[in-house]
Design goal:
Helices cover about 45% and strands about 15% of the residues. By secondary structure, it is α/β, with parallel strands linked by helices. The structure holds glyceraldehyde-3-phosphate, 1,3-dihydroxyacetonephosphate and zinc ion. The site of 1,3-dihydroxyacetonephosphate (13P) has 13 residues, from strand 3 and strand 10.
């Protein structure tokens, strides 16, 4: 049993309370490799932003859970080396799908876990979430739950209202599970193809897709039911078109990739939304930089020569998100 407090990590409780009061959101960035982690920590140290490092099941399979946890432990020390005196870093399991997985992360030094029972029938979601909460809280590990299904073009589900979180369920769900934060569905979705072209309009000048707005009415209803309760948005990458263009002009093929406009995320961050999940944008920044170097310098074969620029690009991206979108800069001096 490893307790996250011994690793210098923090849970989300205080971060979220301050974010809800202060009208900003904590960045939740996924990482799978060293360059992503270095970039996240550098960006957060330079902006003094609290941060949630997210590890998905896919990341565990790709990089190995033990290695990722030691990397997060190292990240606290790296942050201090960079001059960040009091780093506020949370290590969080993203989309945990079983009690056993959540338990193993709690036992292994994670400071927060998500149990995603959103695809289960309501009562089963409650029972599973409650079981995880009861275990995690013994160790002061915070728990994120999810209610409502995120639409995604991957699984042929369009963003219909019926998939949005039902505000009339949130009080019962939060009370009976005891969860610390709640991910809701208001029209965001995972990946770089968040909307089908037929759900969007097109900008006549650029030909780019303009996505439909998020369901702020649902968010407002949820806030009314649970005043001050920490709300989470998944699937919140904006899919910067400059990266899509660099990828597409350097041998890639991402037709009609589209994300959530940043002004909508900025608006959400000012509300009870206090955690915003971003993964795809970092993948796009990384891929754009790598493709550019390899296309312009076909003789290059030293990974540091293309992973280095990719890391620099991710630092830029993360700082932009922190300062211009989430407003979390300066909140962890
Ligand atoms: O919500 C999903 C995250 O973007 C993680 O994605 O399962 O491919 O690691 P992944
Ligand atoms: P994106 O795919 O929009 O980056 O969402 C990431 C996410 O929600 C991780 O849980
Ligand atoms: Zn997610």
């Amino acid at each position: 049993m490893v307790n996250y407090k011994d690793l210098g990590l923090v849970n989300t409780r205080e971060m979220f309370a301050k974010a809800v009061d202060g009208g900003y959101a904590i960045p939740a960035f996924n990482f799978n490799n060293m360059e992503q982690l270095q970039a996240i920590i550098k960006a957060c140290a330079e902006t003094k932003s609290p941060v949630i490092l997210q590890v998905s099941s896919g990341a565990r399979k790709y990089a190995n859970q033990t290695l990722l946890r030691y990397m997060a432990e190292g990240a606290v020390e790296y942050a201090k080396e960079l001059g960040w005196e009091h780093p506020q870093i949370c290590l969080h399991l993203d989309h945990g799908d079983t009690f056993e997985l959540c338990k193993s992360c709690v036992d292994f030094g994670f400071s927060s876990v998500m149990i995603d029972g959103s695809s289960l029938p309501y009562e089963e979601n409650i029972a599973l979430t409650k079981k995880v909460v009861e275990y995690a809280h013994q160790y002061d590990v915070t728990v994120e739950a999810e209610l409502g299904v995120l639409a995604g073009v991957e699984d042929d589900v369009v963003a219909e209202e019926s998939h949005y979180t039902k505000p009339e369920e949130v009080i019962d769900f939060a009370t009976r599970t005891g969860c610390d934060s709640l991910a809701i569905s208001i029209g965001t979705s995972h990946g770089a193809y968040k909307f089908k072209p037929e759900q969007c309009t097109r900008d006549p000048k650029t030909g780019k897709l303009v996505p439909p707005p998020l369901a702020f009415n649902v968010l407002e209803e949820v806030e009314k039911k649970l005043p001050g309760f920490p709300i989470v948005l998944h699937g919140s990458s904006s899919v910067p078109q400059e990266y899509v263009d660099i990828i597409n002009t350097h041998g890639g093929n991402l037709p009609d990739a589209v994300g959530i406009p940043e002004d909508q995320l900025r608006k959400a961050a000012k509300s009870a939304v206090c955690k915003i999940n971003i993964d795809s944008d970092s993948r796009l920044a990384f891929t754009a930089a790598v493709r550019k170097v390899l296309a312009e310098k076909p003789g290059e074969f030293d990974p540091r020569k293309y992973c280095g620029p990719a890391r620099d690009e991710m630092v830029k991206l993360y700082k932009h998100k922190i300062i211009e979108v989430l407003g979390s800069d300066g909140k962890a001096e």
